[in-house]
TrEMBL record:
Presence of keyword Transferase: yes
UniProt KW keywords: Aminotransferase, Endoplasmic reticulum, Lipid metabolism, Lyase, Membrane, Pyridoxal phosphate, Sphingolipid metabolism, Transferase, Transmembrane, Transmembrane helix
Name of the protein in question: Aspartate aminotransferase family protein
Family assignment from sequence similarity: Belongs to the group II decarboxylase family. Sphingosine-1-phosphate lyase subfamily.
Cellular compartment(s): Endoplasmic reticulum membrane
GO molecular function: aromatic-L-amino-acid decarboxylase activity; pyridoxal phosphate binding; transaminase activity
Length: 488
């Protein structure tokens, strides 16, 4: 449906809501336990109802100025205090943000400015494992840091603490560890990485966006969990998304620092203009108090006991899913998942990961009503399918495994996915920065990526072609394709 301009005469509310519901009908379901990425479903309708009602109470409150709306400071302090009680230390301070990307951006900004102020670093570096979230690269790009990427162990997919330590220099502003990494769901050796950073006087950030509000309650449920919070010596900041396993609506996240002195490097203040004095704790200025209010309400509604029960349900789902995956012919689970994120690959006749089979299985599963997230190969790490387990998936494991076995069989009967060698050779010679819009449009059309038509029903050929492209060309093509979707 092509969007229209605002009409001269207004339209009835019920008509507009009906149109919005019609648009939603074409999306992947966000409830019901069949979408294994992007959504975090507690399986508790009252949580959704509470979040919506709490948002409505504060929807018109502007979080820009807590001196005008003191309720904002009260709610934010409550939320950050709740997170610090689980993951912080005495004296820890933090901020409520719009999501993991903003939390990570702020942590990198804090580290950059701290390194400049305390150590005189003018050309800062960011040291991170290859499995660290892409948001760190985005932050480095925005903020002018050089990234130093350290390969991970190719079997465990965990960061190599020694290799990370060897990469730290006098220019390093921040070292990163994940708890867990998104791609494979494994927890890095946080204590070893943080100790190596501390030995050089460098800050260490733990990306616990996805695990920060799950792993502590998994431990409370009796499962073994390696420490990763601010109580670990050398960890100086941490990010945790409450819109993931906190089950708040998006976007809701917290970035936490060891103390207020470190946090002040996150703030932006400006008084050199004729308007009101500006102090922005986060990247946003104006922001609705609704997202903060709904996160506050959900946290207090579920409480530690509720989160522990939900973590136990996720763990029990993993207890059934992992043996089922390992018992499925031709499937290999990657690494040792921490509990809620699982990645698996599909093996070809030679017993090695087969990109075409991985992508065909994703298509077959989607046709059966499941969304599993395809992840392409990268620097020797295999292509795979990624699953995010939530409490709502706990009673879906049996049907999922049954459909997966059928999908693997069907994938093996599909036409093999191939990329024309001549096309791949040509792609290797292309300079993404010199391609004209016409060049890019032609390439996208050849690949089957037409913004007017959206993605084809089966994406295996498209993703296989993307997998074969050099990284920078792949990025250019993806940028242009997404841009074509937002064309008026």
């Amino acid at each position: 449906m092509r969007a229209t301009t605002t009409p001269a005469a207004g339209r009835p509310a019920d008509q507009l809501l009906a149109e919005l519901r019609g648009l939603r009908a074409a999306d992947a379901p966000t409830r019901g336990g069949r979408t294994f990425a992007y959504v975090y479903d507690a399986g508790l309708p009252d949580v959704d109802e509470l979040a919506a009602a709490a948002y409505g109470v504060f929807a018109t409150v502007n979080g820009l100025d807590p001196t005008v709306f003191p309720s904002v400071a009260r709610l934010e302090n409550d939320v950050v205090r709740a997170v610090s009680a689980v993951l912080g230390v005495p004296g820890a301070q933090g901020s409520f943000t719009s999501g993991g990307t903003e939390s990570i951006l702020l942590a990198v900004k804090t580290a950059r400015d701290h390194a400049r102020a305390v150590r005189g670093v003018t050309r800062p570096q960011l040291v991170l494992p290859s499995t660290a979230h892409a948001a760190f690269h985005k932050a480095a790009h925005y903020l002018g840091l050089e990234t130093v990427v350290v390969p991970v162990d190719p079997l465990t997919f965990r960061a190599d603490a020694s290799a990370v330590a060897d990469s730290v220099t006098d220019r390093t502003a921040l070292v990163v560890a994940s708890a867990p990494s998104y791609a494979h769901g494994v927890v890095d050796p946080v204590a070893d990485i943080a100790a190596a950073a501390a030995e050089r006087g460098v800050l260490c950030h733990v990306d616990a966006c996805i695990g920060g509000w799950f792993l502590p309650f998994l431990a409370r449920a009796g499962r073994p969990v390696e420490p990763f919070g601010l109580s670990v010596p050398g960890v100086t900041s941490l990010s945790v998304d409450l819109h993931k396993y906190g089950y708040a609506d998006k976007g809701a996240s917290v970035v936490l620092y060891r103390d207020a002195e470190l946090r002040r490097h996150q703030y932006f203040a400006y008084a050199g203009w004729p308007g009101y004095p500006v102090v922005n704790p986060t990247a946003q200025g104006t922001k609705s108090g609704g997202l903060l209010a709904q996160a506050w309400a959900v946290l207090h509604h579920l409480g530690h006991d509720g989160y522990t029960a939900l973590a136990r349900r996720v763990a029990q789902a993993a207890d059934r899913l992992l043996p089922g995956l390992r018992g499925t012919d031709g499937v290999r689970v990657l690494g040792d998942p921490a509990g809620s994120l699982i990645a698996f690959t599909v093996l070809g006749p030679a017993g090695t990961p087969d990109l075409g089979l991985v992508l065909h299985v994703a298509d077959e599963m989607r046709e059966r009503g499941w969304y599993l997230q395809p992840q392409l190969s990268c620097d020797g790490l295999p292509p795979n399918l990624h699953l995010t387990l939530t409490p709502a998936t706990s009673d879906r494991v049996g049907p999922l495994l049954a459909d997966l076995a059928e999908s693997v069989t069907a994938a093996r009967a599909c036409e093999p996915v191939t990329v024309d060698p001549a096309l791949a050779e040509l792609a290797a010679t292309l300079d993404p920065d010199t391609l004209t819009p016409e060049d890019v449009a032609g390439f996208l059309a050849f690949a089957g990526l037409d913004g007017d038509q959206g993605l084809p029903s089966r994406t295996a050929p498209v993703l296989a072609l993307l997998d074969a492209l050099p990284p920078r060309l792949k990025e250019r093509m993806l940028t242009e394709f997404i841009g074509s979707l937002f064309r008026i």
